[in-house]
Amino acid sequence: MMRIGLFLLACALGWPTVLAAISPAQLVDAARERTQHSVTYDGRYLAIDYPGGDVPANIGVCTDVVIRSYRALGIDLQVLVHEDMQQRFDAYPSKRLWGLTRTDRNIDHRRVPNLQAFFSYAGAVLPVTDTPSDYQPGDLVTWMLPGNLPHIGIVSDKKTGERPWIIHNIGAGPKEEDRLFDYPITGHYRYLH
Fold first, then answer.
1. What is the pLDDT of residues 15-32, one digit of tens each?
2. 116-165: per-residue pLDDT in tens?
3. How does DSSP assign 46-78, residue by residue?
4. 100, 104, 41, 98: which is closest to 78 by C-alpha?
5. How many independent structural domains does the chain possess?
């Protein structure tokens, strides 16, 4: 509770909102808590506050599960991605994929390719393998879904045999499911800043 209070104070004062390292178990618990919310899959563009901005709680996409899970632990990916993109905009895929010429703090952190770039620049990259034990609780995984749609989820501590489950929103709201190897994996990250 104290951590949440410090986070809210930091947001209100405009301070950086990365307070301390988190554990994989904390991230999994925060992500699992997201599965208790009724969320309609809705990725439309909305203007949101900064810092600490979010779309309405009853809507979201795969990235919102990740963003909200980290934010519950005092890590604001909206701020971190936005500030990093301001420093190295041309290194992010926004221009190449969407034709953008500047950052947009309303949406940049809600795009899987931007999160992939951010986690890569943060030194959080791990090998992509087909070995289930390589994917640890709290790791982040990205996939390419049919139709060339990027997707992201958080590795759970729940397993089927040796294969860990994923906490994500693939269209029916946040779920914890056995889907790790259902689609081609495009990225594997461990970000416990």
1. 444 456 999 999 999 999
2. 999 999 999 999 999 999 999 999 999 999 999 999 999 999 999 999 99
3. ----TTT----TTEE-HHHHHHHHHHTTT--HH
4. 104
5. 2
Residue 138 corresponds to which tokens in the numbers above? 């709290």
Count CB atoms within 10 A of the CB of residue 29.
Answer: 16
Which amino acid does the sequence have at 117? A
pTM, two decimal places? 0.90
Residue 127 lies in a domain: no
* pLDDT tens column, 151-175: 999 999 999 999 999 999 999 999 9
User: In terms of C-beta distances under 8 Å and separation of at least 24 residues, what long-range contacts does 5-8 make, across chains too?
Assistant: 6/74, 7/71, 7/74, 7/76
**How far is residue 5's CA from residue 164's CA, in Å, rounded to a whole number?**
32
Q: Which two tokens stand for residue 126?
A: 């791990």
Q: Are residues 99 and 174 in the same domain?
A: no
Question: What pLDDT does residue 20 have?
Answer: 63
Q: Are residues 115 and 162 in the same domain?
A: no
Inter-CA distances, 172 with 37, 89, 112, 146, 167, Å: 11, 33, 18, 16, 12
Dihedral angle, C-alpha 33, 34, 37, 41, nearest 10 °: -170
Residues 160 and 111 grouped into a single domain: no
